[in-house]
Q: What sequence folds into this?
């Protein structure tokens, strides 16, 4: 099977997953205990017209299967109704600067964690049994076991409260007027440092452990022995024969971990009051803002699905054996 | 040799195996440390009322946020409750949620894994599709949504955690089941006329048991973290004090900007240590079960 | 003239269960241009022997004693840097399972080029030209240079590996079970290829195998290993017509021989011993039908029989073992 | 008397592509592991299936043991069609048809002791077992030349390859089988152990009055053990006959090549091997006409690649499928 066919298959898989997500979302908010109208429409702040419009939008007076079809249509356009809290369309709330803020935090954090994990994991495996190896393994276990928001709190306690070199919360200094883009960027990055550090610290342990065990596995393979016998330099063996093989599962892992790192992002954003999707979900929960919750969950799931498809394709490109 | 003596022989041999396992486990640094920490926490959870100087309902409203002293070993919270006592009482919540959620997770995972792996065909395709789907769903947002819909109670939290975390176990159990199912000894059993139930209980389950065991341990660690996370977001059961909830209140009542470190440090440290103990035990079990990591 | 001389080699492994005496006093000579086979059952130490010559032992292996002399140099004493100049350049090796010994994510051509550019100071384009020639030499289609290992069948992968082993024009080729797991016809093709290459390139070949029958057709000399030791060593005709060691004799007799009279196969009782606690005296004595009291106590030395070969058996001149 | 008759049996495994891609990308592909095989075995006979890896011999054994269902064809055991039989109906026959496997390291459940492994057949057929189970286990252990006291309470990993193979033979003997299917039982064992397994099977055949279907890739083993040989290539039988006929005067070019390529442990007998190019093709894309034609030195264009050769009886039950003899 060629690469193109593979990509095609993955896209179809993605489409199936998309429909499953839509279905799950529908059932979560329609079939779960309680009256859907209470979840979606019965807000004292809404006017009578708004309620009527929403009733029509969701087709709540129609039979369930028809509601489902309408729901699928609405999902394509992210039409999840109106937020209880903000009294604005959910679509406008999620496709906003908040989404950019979340991506600005998550993408660098994932990349940093992966790179750091791969490098340290490689060194640990290369010097198996050394002090470095045992220390790094233990440290990653510790980080793996530590709640991300607590690390966030500690980071703020140390760097903001005691040292005063980082801001407490938020994504920009409130009320400030920027003179130019650079000033804004500096302020933004200054605020980003804390959450980024936190997320990276928590995530990198997992990559390290997996890279280490993959590499140890690869080192015991015959082709490494053969490469040694061929007299190749240690560098070639490590990079072209060892890491090249050991890194393949990491690629898949990065895709799968998207789901995991979004979870981390939600908590990190909450702790740091980062103006992003995670923070929004927290607010939606506290205000029982179901339409907003529904929209955010759908968007996050979609992001993971897309990330998965992309990593699968990268994997297929890297591994010549792929033949599904 | 009669039946009775065969049974005695088997019990004795089983005892030998347990001893042998204990000996190998004892030699594992991580495993031993994890077990010691865990024992300590189990002790705290079981005997909380006897160890804690106060109960969670003892409020000293006149002394909120008092720093550690001889009266309050770890200071007090915003209501003037003894943080040390809250910490000890919180152990029970974390442990219970962790253990029960993990058991439920592994039961679902094992059932799905064995069923999908053993029967194959369309059943497998559908179950695996479902597993993959749950595997890539962002777990915490899903848990948040579910918990928000179902409302705060300890049982809902257990349910929510299990419903979100079973796929990992299911996957691993399925692939192990597949390999056992393909093995010659299962074929031999079939050639003797063994039915599916016999094969599942006599061959497949015994061969996946070590994995199930390891996953129960690892899932407890994950469940404890998940419970703490949900509680930290304010979705915890208010009638059971937990470490995550303590951090929630600490954050809500501005412990951070006030620099009240004695409210922030202990609960997080407790979560970390307990989770770490399970992780270390899991790590040790993995090393014992998976001989490939062991030196030849 | 011998090109490689192994003398009293002893290699042990440190394991959790104890010291495994994998190779325990092995000596042999490889003459220039000959095919020399080391035959033994799994776990008898034959692969350890070849890995020691290449010096690619795992870290838990300990070389207790012995010397390996190649071109006047003791390979066990020179620094790793010197060894790198000899390894693959002058002594190359074909691995047991080519599928596992080839990097799965690199095309086979560039894996061979890696070996060439490491050892020969030639530009990459020329290296590729050389790979093409090598492919033709071992009977592979040069248009498949850029294919990945999983795209080849078992026999072709073995040919790829042989091409790789020949890439730096070595003097000695060590082939460790080159035909295990292959079909009979393919097996024969690979062995014939090795035989032809020996003639064409003037190679000296050490062939390591568990299959006594396979080597009978291609080898010049043969050493039989049992439990970490060479028990018999000699010319292929002598070994197969008049073996001196009971193990060799029983092994040959235990093969069903098509075309001869059908008679009950000879069996050897028991299984090969553990190398952590090998039997005292002659290591074969618990399984030997001819064993006497002396065999249980005293280890038989490897003695020379009329310059025709060597044997390690107390009874070599008393038993009359004829095939 | 005939004990087993296999008639035009076929087993095609669908290539796993998933439901979706089979709809999207058209035709379904099959691995034609066994593609129309017929033969009979007489009671008390040792019948051999010889062929290289991937020729379908193992699938055939699993079909006869009814571990998998055939795509097409009939299998008669003592005159009764076992393919059509209901599972329940076939169950008692399972005691009579037993199978032993190639890989001794996989054939025994690593979590069971030898005692429990041998107990399994009795447990599964409690109603039909008479006598003392323990006594039976000990007897069978002695039959396969293992000391019960030494081995009964061990785990499989504490045994050597040869010993494990003896245990799995013992398990198959527990319920006094009539037909034993032996799937390369000696091929993964060391040379010094292999012959003792071959001899053990020969002895057990006498003691237990067994009919043996012996599967191997090694013609020498087939020659040693069997009365009749069927040579398989890519899912079909290409030649079948009395052992001496097939070995001494092979007809099919593939059989000829196979025989001439057998390594003989005797340097005095330099055999000139018939060179056969290439390797066995994938059973997914079976060559048209005669399956051996792309590798055959006697390939006749327009004939061998077009027409499937018919089975031809050249006398005394010696059957061959090759256009050369038509």
A:
């Amino acid at each position: 099977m060629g690469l193109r066919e593979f990509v095609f298959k993955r896209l179809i898989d993605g489409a199936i997953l998309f429909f499953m997500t839509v279905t799950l979302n529908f059932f979560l908010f329609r079939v779960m205990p309680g009256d859907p109208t209470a979840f979606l429409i019965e807000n004292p702040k809404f006017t009578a017209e708004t309620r009527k419009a929403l009733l029509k939008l969701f087709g709540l007076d129609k039979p369930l299967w028809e509601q489902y079809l309408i729901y699928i249509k609405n999902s394509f356009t992210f039409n999840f109704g109106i937020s209880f809290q903000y009294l604005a369309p959910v679509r406008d709330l999620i496709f906003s600067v908040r989404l950019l803020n979340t991506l600005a935090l998550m993408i660098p954090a994932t990349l940093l964690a992966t790179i750091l994990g791969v490098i340290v994991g490689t060194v640990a495996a290369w010097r198996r049994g050394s002090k470095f190896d045992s220390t790094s393994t233990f440290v990653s276990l510790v980080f793996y076991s530590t709640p991300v928001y607590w690390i966030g709190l500690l980071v703020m306690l140390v760097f903001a409260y005691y040292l005063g070199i980082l801001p407490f919360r938020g994504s920009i200094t409130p009320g400030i007027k920027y003179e130019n883009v650079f000033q804004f960027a500096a302020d933004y990055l200054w605020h980003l440092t804390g959450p980024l550090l936190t997320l990276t610290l928590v995530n990198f342990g997992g990559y390290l452990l997996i890279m280490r065990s993959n590499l140890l596995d690869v080192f015991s393979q015959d082709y490494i022995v053969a490469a040694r016998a061929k007299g190749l330099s240690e560098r070639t063996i490590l990079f072209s024969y060892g890491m090249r093989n050991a890194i393949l599962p990491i690629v898949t892992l990065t895709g799968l971990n998207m789901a995991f790192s979004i979870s981390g992002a939600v908590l990190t954003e909450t702790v740091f009051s980062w103006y992003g999707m995670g923070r929004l979900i927290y607010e939606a929960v506290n205000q029982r803002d179901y339409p907003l919750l529904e929209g955010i969950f759908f968007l996050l799931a979609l992001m993971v699905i897309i990330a998965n498809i992309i990593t699968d394709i990268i994997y297929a490109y890297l591994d010549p054996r792929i033949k599904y | 040799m009669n039946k009775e003596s065969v049974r005695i022989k088997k019990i004795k041999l089983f005892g030998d195996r347990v001893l042998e396992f204990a000996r190998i486990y004892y030699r594992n640094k991580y495993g031993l440390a994890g077990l010691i920490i865990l024992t300590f926490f189990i002790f705290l959870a079981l005997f909380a009322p006897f160890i804690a100087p106060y109960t969670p309902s003892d409020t000293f409203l006149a002394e909120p946020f008092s720093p550690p002293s001889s009266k309050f070993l770890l200071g007090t919270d915003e209501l003037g409750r003894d943080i040390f006592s809250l910490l000890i009482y919180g152990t029970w919540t974390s442990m219970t949620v962790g253990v029960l959620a993990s058991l439920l997770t592994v039961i679902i995972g094992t059932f799905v894994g064995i069923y999908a792996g053993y029967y194959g065909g369309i059943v497998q395709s559908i179950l695996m599709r479902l597993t993959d789907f749950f595997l890539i769903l962002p777990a915490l947002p899903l848990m948040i949504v579910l918990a928000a819909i179902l409302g705060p109670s300890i049982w809902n939290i257990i349910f929510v955690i299990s419903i979100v975390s079973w796929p990992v176990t299911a996957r691993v159990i399925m692939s192990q089941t597949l390999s056992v199912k393909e093995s010659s000894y299962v074929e031999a059993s079939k050639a003797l006329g063994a039915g599916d139930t016999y094969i599942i209980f006599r061959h497949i389950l015994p061969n996946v048991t070590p994995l199930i065991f390891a996953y129960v341990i690892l899932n407890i660690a994950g469940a404890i973290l998940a419970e703490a996370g949900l509680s930290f977001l304010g979705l915890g059961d208010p009638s059971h004090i937990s470490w995550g909830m303590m951090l929630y209140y600490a954050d809500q009542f501005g412990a951070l900007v006030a620099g009240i470190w004695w409210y922030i440090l202990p609960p997080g440290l407790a979560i970390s240590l307990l989770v770490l103990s399970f992780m270390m035990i899991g790590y040790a079990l993995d090393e014992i079960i998976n001989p490939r990591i062991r030196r030849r | 003239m011998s090109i490689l001389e192994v003398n009293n080699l002893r290699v042990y492994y440190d394991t959790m269960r104890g010291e495994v005496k994998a190779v325990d006093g092995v000596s042999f000579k490889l003459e220039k241009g000959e095919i020399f086979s080391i035959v033994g059952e799994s776990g008898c130490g034959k692969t350890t022997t070849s890995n020691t010559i290449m010096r690619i032992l795992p870290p838990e292996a300990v070389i207790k004693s012995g010397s390996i002399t190649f071109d006047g140099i003791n390979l066990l004493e020179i620094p790793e840097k010197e060894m790198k100049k000899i390894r693959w350049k002058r002594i190359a090796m074909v691995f047991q399972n080519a599928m596992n010994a080839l990097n799965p994510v690199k095309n086979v051509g560039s894996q061979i080029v890696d070996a060439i550019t490491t050892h020969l100071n030639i530009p990459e384009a020329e290296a590729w030209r050389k790979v093409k020639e090598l492919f033709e030499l071992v009977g592979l289609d040069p248009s498949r240079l850029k294919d990945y290992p999983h795209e080849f069948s078992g026999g072709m992968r073995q040919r790829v590996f042989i091409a790789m082993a020949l890439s730096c024009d070595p003097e000695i080729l060590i082939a460790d079970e080159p035909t295990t797991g292959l079909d009979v016809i393919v097996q024969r093709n690979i062995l014939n290829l090795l035989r032809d290459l020996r003639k064409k390139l003037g190679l000296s070949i050490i062939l390591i195998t568990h299959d006594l029958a396979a080597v009978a057709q291609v080898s010049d000399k043969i050493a039989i290993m049992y439990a970490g030791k060479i028990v018999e060593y000699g010319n292929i005709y002598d070994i197969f017509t008049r073996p001196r060691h009971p193990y060799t004799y029983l092994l040959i007799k235990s093969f069903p021989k098509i075309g001869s009279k059908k008679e009950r196969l000879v069996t050897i009782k028991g299984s090969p011993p553990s190398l952590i606690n090998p039997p005292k005296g002659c290591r074969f004595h618990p399984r030997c039908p001819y064993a006497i009291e002396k065999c249980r106590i005293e280890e038989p030395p490897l003695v020379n029989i009329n310059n025709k070969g060597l044997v390690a058996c107390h009874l070599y001149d008393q038993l009359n073992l004829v095939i | 008397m005939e004990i087993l008759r296999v008639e035009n049996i076929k087993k095609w495994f669908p290539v796993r592509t998933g439901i979706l891609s089979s709809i999207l990308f058209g035709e379904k592909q099959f691995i034609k592991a066994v593609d129309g095989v017929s033969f009979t075995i007489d009671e008390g006979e040792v019948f051999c299936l010889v062929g290289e890896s991937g020729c379908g011999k193992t699938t055939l054994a699993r079909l006869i043991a009814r571990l998998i269902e055939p795509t097409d064809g009939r299998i008669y055991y003592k005159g009764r069609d076992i393919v059509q039989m209901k599972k329940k109906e076939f169950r008692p026959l399972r005691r009579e048809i037993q199978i032993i496997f190639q890989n001794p390291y996989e054939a025994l459940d690593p979590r069971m002791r030898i005692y429990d492994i041998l107990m399994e057949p009795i447990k599964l057929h409690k109603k039909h077992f008479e006598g003392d189970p323990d006594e039976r286990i000990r007897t069978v252990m002695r039959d396969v030349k293992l000391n019960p006291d030494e081995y009964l309470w061990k785990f499989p990993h504490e045994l050597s390859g040869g010993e494990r193979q003896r245990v799995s033979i013992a398990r198959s003997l527990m319920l006094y089988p009539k037909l034993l299917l032996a799937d390369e039982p000696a091929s993964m064992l060391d040379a010094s152990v292999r012959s003792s397994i071959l001899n053990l099977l020969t002895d057990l055949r006498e003691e237990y009055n067994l009919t043996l279907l012996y599967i191997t890739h090694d013609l020498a083993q087939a020659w040693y053990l069997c009365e009749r040989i069927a040579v398989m290539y890519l899912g079909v039988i290409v030649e079948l006959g009395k052992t001496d006929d097939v070995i001494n005067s092979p007809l099919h070019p593939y059989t000829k090549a196979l025989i001439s390529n057998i390594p003989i442990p005797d340097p005095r007998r330099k055999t000139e091997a018939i060179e056969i190019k290439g390797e066995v093709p994938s059973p997914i894309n079976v060559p048209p006409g005669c399956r051996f034609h792309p590798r055959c030195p006697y390939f006749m264009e327009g004939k061998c690649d077009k027409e499937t050769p018919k089975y031809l009886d050249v006398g005394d039950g010696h059957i061959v499928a090759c256009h050369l003899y038509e």
